[in-house]
Amino acid sequence: MVIGLVIHASHRAVFEDAARTLAGVTLEWVVYEHEDAVRDLVGDLLARQRVDGLMLGPVPYAKCSDLLPADLPVAILRSAGLDLSLAFFKALSRGWRPTPVSIDTYDVGTVDEVVRALDLDPAGISCLPYDPEQSVAEIVAFHRAALARTGADYVISLRTAVAEQLAGTTRVLGGLPGPATLRAQLHELALRVQSKRASALRFAAGVFLVSRAGPQLDLDRARVGLMNLLLNTPEFGDAWIENRGRRGVVVFAHQALFEQATRNWVALPALGQAQETLGIRVAAGFGVGASARSCLHLAERAAARAEQEDAPSAYLVEDSGVIIGPMSPVGTAVAFTYRGHGAELERLAGEVGLSAATLSRLAAVERALEGRAISPGDLAQQLGITDPSGRRLIRKLSESGLVEAEGSTQLHRKGRPARLYRLRIAAAIEDR
């Protein structure tokens, strides 16, 4: 798991302290000196490294939010009441009066809660909540006006640039979240990433139905044409496809495959292709449940709902009760798959000493990993083989340069660390 951290250079030590308890996570540090550099640095990170999650403050988020993929789990750092309370106690330890004081970036609700808990005078608190449209100069002007009005001894600021501009003329306490707050937010983000992965690997089913269009339509011929179309559709290259009745085709796969094929349940280009190339109208339904039977039942319900639409469409029904649709037949299909065991893959399989089917399955696993490393045990589980067979397979692939070592991880305190490997099958095929 790879998590990106976008932080100011002065904050790295506290983040490193907070991240000490994370296991099985690789951190990609994006360290900036000035806020204006955030956008370019985050863009560079996303271009060179696939990240599973991203943690950053509200200011960096405002600078680069439009660059972030829609499905990327993002945690925006928020200072808690504990952090503000510690800032007040730090002021007391230095002999400063707790109030009056000028505070920026904290939520008004958090400030009010801490003021009540510490029995401070709310009239002595000047608070400017975070607003992405406010410039550093405007925040500095707010503090200076508050200091002149109330006679406050100091400022509590979460903005490094603000503290730099006030330095030398005004005493400033930083309200950066402490290790405990950061650790909690890092662990929460890691759990969200794990939950997303687990959801993507859930079993799912899809049902495609040829809509009845009068007695002149040959349903058997239309169904065969539909099946051939799906078999040759790259998005379904790793799915199990078979007939279901005279006018239906059923597809079994992981939820992630259907999410990719439907552009995250928005569009299903295969419907438009069926109408354009086969001249038939198709309705599709997808089901996500706890078992194959449940998935199939939900997919049939979704397909029945899609048939009620006036145009080719698809629906999703989950066992949680979520229903999404109708999905449009408009979209762009991907153009690459290993289903056909092309000549390059066949030659590579012969050179490595593996069957083309095994190498094709490994290529499918590599695509699903999207650049992440995998242990021999996890690879064995993906392929449905024993752990010793998985280790032997890794050794064979390593001898042929089809995997590269990527360090190790230890998810549990007991036991030996697991070696990690990155599959390189796609690159080997492209080089041919």
Describe this structure in words.
The chain is of the alpha/beta class and 432 residues long. The chain folds into four domains: 95 residues, Response regulator (Rossmann fold); 96 residues, 3-Layer(aba) Sandwich (Rossmann fold), CATH 3.40.50; 127 residues, 2-Layer Sandwich (Alpha-Beta Plaits), CATH 3.30.70; 88 residues, Arc Repressor Mutant, subunit A. Helix content is 44%, strand content 20%. It contains 17 helices and 16 strands. The strands form four sheets. Strands 10-11-9-12-13-14 form a six-stranded mixed sheet. Helix 9 crosses helix 11 and helix 15 packs across helix 16. The chain is elongated and about 85 Å long. About 2% of the residues have low confidence.
Layout: helices, strands, pairs:
Blueprint: E1 2-8, H1 12-18, E2 26-32, H2 38-48, E3 53-56, H3 58-64, E4 74-76, H4 81-93, E5 101-105, H5 108-117, E6 125-129, H6 136-150, E7 154-157, H7 160-166, E8 171-174, H8 179-200, E9 203-210, H9 219-231, E10 240-243, E11 248-254, H10 255-261, H11 269-278, E12 282-288, H12 292-307, E13 314-318, E14 323-327, H13 343-352, H14 356-369, H15 376-383, H16 387-399, E15 403-409, E16 418-423, H17 425-430
Parallel strand pairs: 1-2, 1-3, 3-4, 5-6, 5-7, 7-8, 12-13
Antiparallel strand pairs: 9-11, 9-12, 10-11, 13-14, 15-16
Concise description?
With 432 residues, the protein is an alpha/beta fold. The chain contains 17 helices and 16 strands.
Identify the notable features of this structure and list them briefly.
432 residues, alpha/beta, Rossmann fold, Alpha-Beta Plaits, 4 domains, six-stranded mixed sheet, four-stranded parallel sheet, 17 helices, elongated
